[in-house]
Amino acid sequence: MKKLFSIFSVAVALLSCNTASFNGNRAEAIAAQMHDPNSEYVVVACHRGDWRNWPENSIPAIESVIAMGADIVEIDIHMTADSALVLCHDSSVRRTTNFSKVFRDQPDKSPKISDLTLAEIKSLSLKRMHEAAVIDTLRMPTLREALECTRDRICVNIDKGYDYYDAVLALTEELGVTGQVLIKGKKPIEVVAANEAAHESNMMYMPIVDIQKEKGKALFNSYLEQGVVPMAYEVCWQSNDDGAFAEAARKIREQGSKIWVNTIWPSLCGGSGNDDDAAYLASDPGKVYQQYIDAGVSMIQTDRPELLIGWLEKTGHHSLR
Protein backbone atom coordinates (compact mmCIF):
# COMPACT_ATOMS: atom_id res chain seq x y z
CA MET A 1 0.00 0.00 0.00
CA LYS A 2 1.06 3.57 -0.59
CA LYS A 3 1.95 5.68 2.43
CA LEU A 4 0.29 9.05 2.62
CA PHE A 5 2.31 11.89 1.18
CA SER A 6 5.39 13.26 2.88
CA ILE A 7 4.50 12.50 6.48
CA PHE A 8 6.07 9.08 6.20
CA SER A 9 9.34 10.49 4.90
CA VAL A 10 10.06 11.64 8.43
CA ALA A 11 8.61 8.65 10.24
CA VAL A 12 11.84 6.67 10.40
CA ALA A 13 13.71 9.62 11.85
CA LEU A 14 11.00 10.18 14.44
CA LEU A 15 10.90 6.53 15.40
CA SER A 16 14.62 6.67 16.18
CA CYS A 17 13.64 8.61 19.31
CA ASN A 18 13.85 6.17 22.21
CA THR A 19 10.78 6.79 24.32
CA ALA A 20 12.72 5.76 27.40
CA SER A 21 15.13 8.64 26.81
CA PHE A 22 14.12 11.35 24.38
CA ASN A 23 16.76 13.96 25.22
CA GLY A 24 14.21 16.39 26.61
CA ASN A 25 12.34 16.81 23.31
CA ARG A 26 9.02 15.46 24.43
CA ALA A 27 7.18 16.62 21.31
CA GLU A 28 9.37 14.48 19.07
CA ALA A 29 8.84 11.49 21.33
CA ILE A 30 5.08 11.99 21.09
CA ALA A 31 5.28 12.36 17.31
CA ALA A 32 7.20 9.09 17.18
CA GLN A 33 4.34 7.34 18.92
CA MET A 34 1.88 8.90 16.50
CA HIS A 35 3.84 7.60 13.53
CA ASP A 36 4.27 4.09 14.96
CA PRO A 37 1.28 1.92 13.96
CA ASN A 38 2.36 -0.74 16.46
CA SER A 39 2.58 1.56 19.48
CA GLU A 40 0.12 0.87 22.30
CA TYR A 41 0.66 4.35 23.72
CA VAL A 42 -2.61 6.31 23.75
CA VAL A 43 -2.12 9.92 22.68
CA VAL A 44 -4.23 12.49 24.54
CA ALA A 45 -5.25 15.64 22.68
CA CYS A 46 -6.73 18.55 24.63
CA HIS A 47 -9.55 20.51 23.03
CA ARG A 48 -8.71 24.25 23.07
CA GLY A 49 -6.33 23.64 25.97
CA ASP A 50 -7.49 23.68 29.58
CA TRP A 51 -10.54 25.82 28.96
CA ARG A 52 -12.18 24.84 32.24
CA ASN A 53 -9.58 26.79 34.19
CA TRP A 54 -8.28 29.34 31.68
CA PRO A 55 -9.62 31.16 28.63
CA GLU A 56 -9.76 28.75 25.71
CA ASN A 57 -6.87 28.96 23.24
CA SER A 58 -4.79 31.05 25.67
CA ILE A 59 -1.15 30.51 26.65
CA PRO A 60 -2.03 29.51 30.26
CA ALA A 61 -4.57 27.02 28.87
CA ILE A 62 -1.73 25.49 26.85
CA GLU A 63 0.73 25.54 29.74
CA SER A 64 -1.83 23.83 31.97
CA VAL A 65 -2.29 20.80 29.70
CA ILE A 66 1.47 20.50 29.23
CA ALA A 67 1.76 20.28 33.02
CA MET A 68 -0.95 17.59 33.05
CA GLY A 69 1.11 15.42 30.71
CA ALA A 70 -1.03 15.83 27.60
CA ASP A 71 0.43 14.95 24.20
CA ILE A 72 -1.37 17.33 21.84
CA VAL A 73 -3.00 20.68 22.37
CA GLU A 74 -5.72 21.50 19.85
CA ILE A 75 -5.87 25.17 18.92
CA ASP A 76 -7.89 27.17 16.39
CA ILE A 77 -6.63 29.98 14.17
CA HIS A 78 -7.94 32.88 12.14
CA MET A 79 -6.18 35.68 10.25
CA THR A 80 -6.45 39.36 11.16
CA ALA A 81 -6.94 42.23 8.73
CA ASP A 82 -3.17 42.76 8.71
CA SER A 83 -2.41 39.08 8.07
CA ALA A 84 -1.48 37.94 11.58
CA LEU A 85 -2.58 34.45 12.64
CA VAL A 86 -4.22 34.47 16.08
CA LEU A 87 -5.75 31.79 18.28
CA CYS A 88 -9.54 31.85 18.35
CA HIS A 89 -12.17 29.24 17.62
CA ASP A 90 -14.79 31.66 16.30
CA SER A 91 -14.44 33.94 13.31
CA SER A 92 -15.73 36.68 15.63
CA VAL A 93 -14.25 37.86 18.94
CA ARG A 94 -17.65 38.64 20.46
CA ARG A 95 -17.99 35.43 22.52
CA THR A 96 -14.41 35.09 23.73
CA THR A 97 -13.42 38.71 24.51
CA ASN A 98 -14.71 41.97 25.98
CA PHE A 99 -15.14 43.41 22.50
CA SER A 100 -18.49 45.07 23.25
CA LYS A 101 -17.00 46.96 26.18
CA VAL A 102 -13.81 48.07 24.46
CA PHE A 103 -15.58 49.24 21.31
CA ARG A 104 -18.82 50.44 22.91
CA ASP A 105 -18.25 53.92 21.45
CA GLN A 106 -17.92 52.41 17.96
CA PRO A 107 -21.22 50.56 17.38
CA ASP A 108 -20.39 49.95 13.74
CA LYS A 109 -17.08 48.26 14.53
CA SER A 110 -16.99 44.69 13.27
CA PRO A 111 -16.16 41.91 15.75
CA LYS A 112 -14.83 39.71 12.95
CA ILE A 113 -11.17 38.81 13.28
CA SER A 114 -10.68 39.37 9.57
CA ASP A 115 -11.81 42.99 10.04
CA LEU A 116 -9.58 43.72 13.04
CA THR A 117 -5.86 44.46 13.15
CA LEU A 118 -3.54 42.59 15.46
CA ALA A 119 -3.21 45.73 17.60
CA GLU A 120 -6.99 45.87 17.97
CA ILE A 121 -7.11 42.18 18.84
CA LYS A 122 -4.40 42.69 21.46
CA SER A 123 -6.44 45.49 23.04
CA LEU A 124 -9.10 42.96 24.01
CA SER A 125 -9.20 40.85 27.17
CA LEU A 126 -10.21 37.20 27.03
CA LYS A 127 -13.23 35.62 28.71
CA ARG A 128 -13.13 32.39 30.67
CA MET A 129 -15.20 29.20 30.42
CA HIS A 130 -16.74 29.45 26.94
CA GLU A 131 -19.92 31.47 27.49
CA ALA A 132 -19.00 32.88 30.92
CA ALA A 133 -18.69 36.65 31.23
CA VAL A 134 -15.69 36.55 33.58
CA ILE A 135 -13.02 38.84 32.12
CA ASP A 136 -9.36 37.89 32.36
CA THR A 137 -6.32 40.11 31.94
CA LEU A 138 -5.02 37.74 29.28
CA ARG A 139 -4.80 38.69 25.63
CA MET A 140 -5.37 36.55 22.55
CA PRO A 141 -2.06 34.97 21.50
CA THR A 142 -0.65 34.83 18.02
CA LEU A 143 0.18 31.48 16.47
CA ARG A 144 3.86 32.40 16.74
CA GLU A 145 3.52 32.96 20.48
CA ALA A 146 1.70 29.65 20.88
CA LEU A 147 4.27 27.66 18.90
CA GLU A 148 7.12 29.28 20.80
CA CYS A 149 5.39 28.08 23.97
CA THR A 150 4.80 24.51 22.74
CA ARG A 151 8.10 23.96 20.89
CA ASP A 152 9.65 20.60 21.85
CA ARG A 153 7.22 20.24 24.78
CA ILE A 154 3.93 19.10 23.23
CA CYS A 155 2.56 18.48 19.75
CA VAL A 156 0.01 20.88 18.30
CA ASN A 157 -3.13 20.23 16.27
CA ILE A 158 -4.01 23.43 14.42
CA ASP A 159 -7.71 23.32 13.68
CA LYS A 160 -8.81 25.37 10.68
CA GLY A 161 -5.13 25.36 9.79
CA TYR A 162 -5.52 23.98 6.29
CA ASP A 163 -7.08 27.25 5.15
CA TYR A 164 -3.77 28.96 5.92
CA TYR A 165 -1.47 26.06 5.10
CA ASP A 166 1.36 28.01 3.41
CA ALA A 167 1.52 30.68 6.12
CA VAL A 168 1.43 28.12 8.92
CA LEU A 169 4.09 25.95 7.26
CA ALA A 170 6.39 28.93 6.77
CA LEU A 171 6.11 29.69 10.48
CA THR A 172 6.67 26.09 11.61
CA GLU A 173 9.74 25.87 9.37
CA GLU A 174 11.13 29.09 10.82
CA LEU A 175 10.61 27.84 14.38
CA GLY A 176 11.78 24.29 13.64
CA VAL A 177 8.54 22.62 14.74
CA THR A 178 7.08 21.33 11.46
CA GLY A 179 7.27 17.69 12.59
CA GLN A 180 5.47 18.58 15.82
CA VAL A 181 2.38 20.08 14.16
CA LEU A 182 -0.71 18.25 12.93
CA ILE A 183 -3.21 19.53 10.37
CA LYS A 184 -6.50 17.71 9.73
CA GLY A 185 -9.05 18.11 7.00
CA LYS A 186 -11.69 16.74 4.65
CA LYS A 187 -9.95 17.53 1.36
CA PRO A 188 -9.78 14.84 -1.35
CA ILE A 189 -6.59 12.80 -1.50
CA GLU A 190 -5.51 14.44 -4.75
CA VAL A 191 -5.82 17.96 -3.33
CA VAL A 192 -3.75 17.14 -0.26
CA ALA A 193 -1.11 15.32 -2.30
CA ALA A 194 -0.75 18.23 -4.75
CA ASN A 195 -0.49 20.74 -1.94
CA GLU A 196 2.20 18.77 -0.13
CA ALA A 197 4.13 18.16 -3.33
CA ALA A 198 4.62 21.93 -3.56
CA HIS A 199 6.71 21.93 -0.37
CA GLU A 200 9.96 20.26 0.64
CA SER A 201 8.67 19.63 4.17
CA ASN A 202 5.15 19.26 5.46
CA MET A 203 3.30 19.07 8.73
CA MET A 204 1.59 15.86 9.76
CA TYR A 205 -1.77 15.41 8.07
CA MET A 206 -4.85 13.42 9.09
CA PRO A 207 -8.13 13.01 7.17
CA ILE A 208 -11.40 13.56 9.02
CA VAL A 209 -14.07 11.02 8.12
CA ASP A 210 -17.64 11.12 9.36
CA ILE A 211 -18.53 7.51 8.66
CA GLN A 212 -22.31 7.98 8.88
CA LYS A 213 -22.49 10.87 6.41
CA GLU A 214 -22.24 10.46 2.66
CA LYS A 215 -19.26 12.78 2.13
CA GLY A 216 -17.40 11.21 5.02
CA LYS A 217 -18.05 7.68 3.77
CA ALA A 218 -16.91 8.68 0.28
CA LEU A 219 -13.66 10.17 1.58
CA PHE A 220 -12.96 7.14 3.75
CA ASN A 221 -13.64 4.75 0.88
CA SER A 222 -11.34 6.73 -1.42
CA TYR A 223 -8.42 6.09 0.94
CA LEU A 224 -9.23 2.39 1.15
CA GLU A 225 -9.79 1.97 -2.57
CA GLN A 226 -6.65 3.84 -3.59
CA GLY A 227 -4.53 2.06 -1.02
CA VAL A 228 -3.38 5.34 0.55
CA VAL A 229 -2.45 4.81 4.20
CA PRO A 230 -2.59 7.95 6.36
CA MET A 231 -0.86 8.17 9.70
CA ALA A 232 -4.31 8.12 11.30
CA TYR A 233 -7.96 8.88 10.66
CA GLU A 234 -10.12 11.13 12.79
CA VAL A 235 -13.37 9.16 12.93
CA CYS A 236 -16.68 10.82 13.77
CA TRP A 237 -20.07 9.12 14.08
CA GLN A 238 -23.42 9.96 15.67
CA SER A 239 -24.89 6.58 16.60
CA ASN A 240 -23.68 3.10 17.47
CA ASP A 241 -26.89 1.51 16.22
CA ASP A 242 -25.56 0.34 12.85
CA GLY A 243 -22.11 -0.81 13.93
CA ALA A 244 -20.48 1.70 11.56
CA PHE A 245 -17.71 2.65 13.97
CA ALA A 246 -16.72 -0.92 14.76
CA GLU A 247 -16.55 -1.74 11.05
CA ALA A 248 -14.53 1.39 10.24
CA ALA A 249 -12.14 0.71 13.11
CA ARG A 250 -11.56 -2.82 11.83
CA LYS A 251 -10.75 -1.57 8.32
CA ILE A 252 -8.41 1.09 9.67
CA ARG A 253 -6.50 -1.40 11.79
CA GLU A 254 -6.19 -3.77 8.84
CA GLN A 255 -4.88 -0.93 6.71
CA GLY A 256 -2.17 -0.11 9.25
CA SER A 257 -3.37 3.35 10.31
CA LYS A 258 -4.17 4.70 13.75
CA ILE A 259 -7.60 5.82 14.99
CA TRP A 260 -8.41 9.22 16.51
CA VAL A 261 -11.76 9.72 18.24
CA ASN A 262 -13.31 12.77 19.89
CA THR A 263 -14.95 12.19 23.26
CA ILE A 264 -15.68 15.90 23.72
CA TRP A 265 -19.34 15.69 22.59
CA PRO A 266 -21.71 12.71 22.30
CA SER A 267 -22.58 13.67 18.72
CA LEU A 268 -18.99 12.92 17.66
CA CYS A 269 -18.65 9.52 19.31
CA GLY A 270 -21.83 7.54 19.04
CA GLY A 271 -24.23 9.37 21.33
CA SER A 272 -24.91 9.88 25.02
CA GLY A 273 -22.91 7.75 27.41
CA ASN A 274 -19.82 7.57 25.26
CA ASP A 275 -18.23 10.95 26.01
CA ASP A 276 -16.05 12.69 28.60
CA ASP A 277 -18.90 13.86 30.79
CA ALA A 278 -20.24 10.30 31.00
CA ALA A 279 -16.76 9.16 32.04
CA TYR A 280 -16.61 11.93 34.64
CA LEU A 281 -19.93 10.91 36.14
CA ALA A 282 -19.14 7.19 36.12
CA SER A 283 -17.70 5.43 39.14
CA ASP A 284 -14.92 4.21 36.85
CA PRO A 285 -13.87 6.25 33.75
CA GLY A 286 -12.95 2.95 32.12
CA LYS A 287 -16.65 2.23 31.67
CA VAL A 288 -16.49 4.80 28.87
CA TYR A 289 -12.88 4.88 27.71
CA GLN A 290 -12.14 1.13 27.65
CA GLN A 291 -14.48 0.61 24.68
CA TYR A 292 -12.20 2.78 22.57
CA ILE A 293 -9.05 0.99 23.63
CA ASP A 294 -10.74 -2.32 22.82
CA ALA A 295 -11.58 -0.99 19.33
CA GLY A 296 -7.94 -0.12 18.72
CA VAL A 297 -8.19 3.63 19.28
CA SER A 298 -4.84 5.17 20.18
CA MET A 299 -5.59 8.90 19.89
CA ILE A 300 -8.34 10.59 21.93
CA GLN A 301 -9.33 14.25 21.93
CA THR A 302 -10.84 15.15 25.27
CA ASP A 303 -12.32 18.00 27.27
CA ARG A 304 -11.31 16.27 30.53
CA PRO A 305 -7.57 15.64 30.12
CA GLU A 306 -6.76 15.09 33.78
CA LEU A 307 -9.41 12.40 34.08
CA LEU A 308 -8.38 10.61 30.88
CA ILE A 309 -4.63 10.82 31.50
CA GLY A 310 -5.06 9.55 35.06
CA TRP A 311 -7.03 6.54 33.86
CA LEU A 312 -4.61 5.82 31.00
CA GLU A 313 -1.59 5.98 33.30
CA LYS A 314 -3.27 3.66 35.79
CA THR A 315 -4.00 1.14 33.03
CA GLY A 316 -0.52 1.35 31.48
CA HIS A 317 -1.43 3.15 28.25
CA HIS A 318 0.27 6.50 28.76
CA SER A 319 3.96 6.43 29.59
CA LEU A 320 6.77 7.75 27.41
CA ARG A 321 9.41 6.58 29.90
Structure characterization notes:
There is one protein chain. The chain contains 13 helices and eleven strands. It has a single domain (2-76, 153-314), classed as Phosphatidylinositol (PI) phosphodiesterase (TIM Barrel), CATH 3.20.20. By secondary structure, it is of the alpha/beta class. The radius of gyration is 19 Å and the shape is globular. An eight-stranded parallel barrel has the order 2-3-5-6-7-9-10-11, surrounded by six helices. Strands 1-8 form a two-stranded parallel sheet. Helix 3 packs parallel to helix 6 and helix 6 packs across helix 7. Helices cover 35% and strands 16% of the residues. The protein has helices at residues 11-15, 26-35, 59-68, 99-102, 118-122, 143-150, 165-175, 189-197, 214-226, 244-255, 276-281, 286-294, 305-314, and strands spanning 2-3, 43-47, 72-79, 85-87, 155-159, 181-185, 204-210, 228-229, 232-236, 258-262, 299-302.
Short description:
35% of the residues lie in helices and 16% in strands. By secondary structure, the protein is α/β, with parallel strands linked by helices.
